[in-house]
Inverse folding.
């Protein structure tokens, strides 16, 4: 099944997502991913979780210029979790992007 592009990433299987992330994030020499303020609701062997994220990222400036083009993204992850024999696992993650600062440079393409 081909992955569909959605805000914040793609929808697909774990291997699809890992391949896409490697291509998409490989263009950014500087990234940070802060996840905090978890709320978790347990229901037997299932759970739901919501947490906030803050993600500054830097792209190289045009040839001959020093420094980075910095972008900031923030929002929430809304997760569904299941308990397995190996422990708790995220079975679904939906990114809820709520704010950003900065724009991607003109002509910049995120691979699909």
């Amino acid at each position: 099944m081909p992955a569909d592009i959605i805000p914040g990433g793609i929808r697909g299987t774990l291997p699809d997502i890992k391949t896409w992330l490697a291509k998409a994030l490989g263009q950014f020499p500087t990234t940070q991913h802060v996840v905090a303020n978890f709320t978790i609701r347990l229901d037997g062997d299932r759970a739901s979780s919501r947490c906030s994220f803050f993600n500054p990222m830097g792209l190289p400036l045009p040839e001959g210029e020093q420094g980075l083009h910095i972008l900031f993204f923030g929002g929430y992850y809304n997760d569904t979790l299941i308990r397995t024999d190996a422990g708790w696992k995220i079975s679904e993650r939906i990114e809820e992007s709520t704010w950003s600062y900065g724009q991607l440079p003109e002509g910049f393409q995120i691979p699909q």
